[in-house]
Amino acid sequence: MRTLFKRFKISYLLLVGLFLLQTGAEAQNLKVAIAANLQPVMKVLQKDFKQKTGITIDAISGPSGNLATQIQNGAPFDVFLSADTKFPDNLYKSGYALKAPVFYAGGVLIICSTKKTDLKNWPKLLISNKVEKIAIGNPSIAPYGKAAEEALKKAGIYDQIKPKIVLGESITQVNTYISTGSVQIGFTTLAFAKEVKNKFSLTYALVDPNTYSPIQQAMVLLKHAQRNANAEKFYQYILGASAKKVFKAYGYHVQ
Q1: Please, are residues 109 and 207 in contact by the beta-carbon 8 Å criterion?
Q2: Element (H or E) spanning 13, and its range?
Q3: What is the C-alpha separation between 239 and 7, in angstroms, rounded?
Q4: Cα(154)–Cα(98) distance, rounded to whole angstroms?
Q5: Is the pTM of this model over 0.70?
Q6: Per-residue pLDDT for 71 more than 60?
Q7: Which domains does the chain have, with CATH numbers?
């Protein structure tokens, strides 16, 4: 009986030890909040960063505005990569970040379609009967949606085509609308075109950058990062040459 109890005790201690080791490993995983436009590029960054450091990144994506709200409500993120500077700046000023926001990449807005379409004079196309649905991100929470709205207003056609607009909660949802053909036209990121170039045909054109505010994407190291020493390593990695090379390959501007 004693031998059986001893074996049980040893097995129990081994299980507890393995649980603690697993819990400790998970605790060291970085929780990174990323703007929805970064999903394709983040897959590459995650792999590269792990190869270089052995550190695993848990990336949670969404509209920048929603992620900022989650952080304010206590979401345990270590680093926040936004699609703009406004949301991370507000977090810093409100005491949720350890450092002021830093620029890591500049976004590029495109107009696109899965059909072969002449997009040279896209304002004229959008007001025509050829286009029934146009996807853009929600301007209040998705910076690329805000940029698209600005471009449409600059072109003087926003009020005319407003009934045709289909709002995506994030740029990921906009990309889904585009790729499934749920809309004829969509405004999204150049990174999307880079991502799908070998998957399906996409016709796209760059939207004149003078028609919308620069998409300056910024990053902040959050207060929760004080509990994870690896957060600073990832923060510096994003600002380094390896990450910049990846961003550039996906159509972002880097300094």
Answers
A1: yes
A2: helix 2-28
A3: 52
A4: 37
A5: yes
A6: yes
A7: 29-106+216-249 (3.40.190.10), 108-211 (3.40.190.10)
pLDDT for 4 equals: 40
Q: Which residue has the tokens 């990569």?
A: 81
pLDDT value at position 167?
97
Instruction: Find the DSSP H helices in 197-254.
Output: 230-238, 241-249
The edge-to-edge listing of strands for the beta sheet with 185-189 is: 165-168, 134-137, 185-189, 109-113, 203-206
Q: Is the dihedral of CA 205, 211, 212, 216 positive or negative?
A: positive
Q: pLDDT above 70 covers what percent of the chain?
A: 89
Per DSSP, helices labelled H in 141-229 are 143-154, 158-161, 171-179, 190-196
Average pLDDT value for the chain: 90
Dmax (CA) for the chain in angstroms is: 87
Mean pLDDT of 169-187: 96
DSSP 153: H
Is residue 64 a contact partner of residue 87, using CB atoms and an 8 Å limit? yes
pLDDT (average), residues 138-160: 96
Tell which residue, 197, 206, 199, has the closest CA to residue 253. Answer: 206
Give the torsion sign (CA, 156, 157, 163, 166): negative
Percent of the chain with pLDDT over 90: 85
Looking at residue 197, its pLDDT comes to 87
25-39 burial: b if 16+ Cβ within 10 Å, else e: eeeeebbbbbbbbbb
DSSP summary character for residue 94: T
